Amino acid sequence: xxxxxxxxxxxxxxxxxxxxxxxxxxxxxxxxxxxxxxxxxxxxxxxxxxxxxxxxxxxxxxxxxxxxxxxxxxxxxxxxxxxxxxxxxxxxxxxxxxxxxxxxxxxxxxxxxxxxxxxxxxxxxxxxxxxxxxxxxxxxxxxxxxxxxxxxxxxxxxxxxxxxxxxxxxxxxxxxxxxxxxxxxxxxxxxxxxxxxxxxxxxxxxxxxxxxxxxxxxxxxxxxxxxxxxxxxxxxxxxxxxxxxxxxxxxxxxxxxxxxxxxxxxxxxxxx
Length: 272
Ligand SMILES: O=C(O)CCC(=O)C(=O)O
Ligand SMILES: [Fe+2]
Prior knowledge:
Elements: E1 4-7, H1 11-21, E2 23-27, H2 32-47, E3 61-64, H3 67-70, H4 72-78, H5 81-91, E4 98-108, E5 135-141, E6 153-154, E7 173-174, E8 182-186, E9 191-192, E10 202-211, H6 220-223, H7 226-229, H8 234-240, H9 265-268
Parallel strand pairs: 1-2
Antiparallel strand pairs: 2-8, 3-4, 4-10, 5-8, 5-10, 6-7, 6-9
Fe (ii) ion (FE2) binds next to loops.
């Protein structure tokens, strides 16, 4: 089954296609001015990033996180109305609120072999029942994605396969797309980064969302600490996790705060 390619779809159309196929491409989301803005902000951050230290992260691949604290342009991508609406619609059967799971530029350099085929939901181990879909993923292409430079390998339909089913070669498609287009895939679909057999770097930004009651892949409280988060859009603060989820999750007492009720003298005295 080939990846479906949509142009200017509604959030509902994205969520519906993702439910059916497990992955799709939305073409030409960013115009050249917005694309350049994101590329310009990412270039120095990528430059300062070390290569991966194992085969899964990629010895010729750079992974650059912490983007909410460091890039106004990427904050806009995370808050994109259509993508955020699609993420909320897609995950709504299992949660009331969603969280920002990961922000990461993936720069696949020359000579990088293909990544092992996987499902991103394995971040939570095998504990989540398969009928719960935990994750909505995007990869925003900052360079063209080609078969030669490492376009993501995807097995459409495999989000419904049992764990042990292996994909045959003719069941893969490649997320070839022009810079400014977006690959969308669920946490349950089989996929991997492709091999880069060129002398250019393939660059995409992986922005992913998860159910509000799961632990996020990227520790957003460390990546975007309170002194930075306090100036961000309240909706983005909530996506980062600076909010409560459900009746109890996110409970918090400010340990450095000033209690409005004065402590009794006796409580302040040191023992002895
Ligand atoms: O870079 C890509 O195309 C996909 C990478 C990926 O699937 C991952 O790192 O989990
Ligand atoms: Fe992945």
